[in-house]
Write a structure and sequence with these properties.
About 40% of the residues lie in helices and about 35% in strands. It is an alpha/beta fold. Helix 1 packs parallel to helix 2. The chain is globular.
């Protein structure tokens, strides 16, 4: 599955969801197709889900809300492990991604 625009690309490889580019969509409704893609991965009943954000240069507050919603959804599925990959080269990631661990203690966060 893939969502591709001039500003960003989001695609899946198995239970890994890759994000690339700049996400500046307006409001939660605009993020719904991305949330649908993320939830589609869950319908496959994976043992783990990886969010690879290492190439996501910018994510606005509505996008961070999307990640929070997905994390809360995963919290309801204790059989599914979640790993989030980030980059220290992208400032918003070091500031915002640790909040996902506050929402779900089982989130493994790797920021390199």
């Amino acid at each position: 599955m893939e969502i591709k625009t001039a500003e960003y690309t989001i695609w899946t490889e198995g239970s890994t969801i890759h994000y690339e580019g700049t996400l500046r969509l307006s409001g939660t409704d605009a993020y719904q197709p991305i949330l649908d893609l993320m939830q589609q991965v869950l319908t496959e009943k994976p043992q783990n889900v990886v969010l690879d954000l290492t190439q996501l240069e910018f994510l606005n507050s509505s996008g961070i809300n999307l990640l929070a919603k997905f994390t809360i959804e995963l919290r309801k599925q204790p059989d599914v492990a979640m790993k989030v990959l980030g980059s220290t080269k992208i400032p918003w990631q070091s500031k915002s991604l640790p909040n996902l661990q506050k929402l779900h203690k089982g989130v493994e966060l790797i920021i390199v």
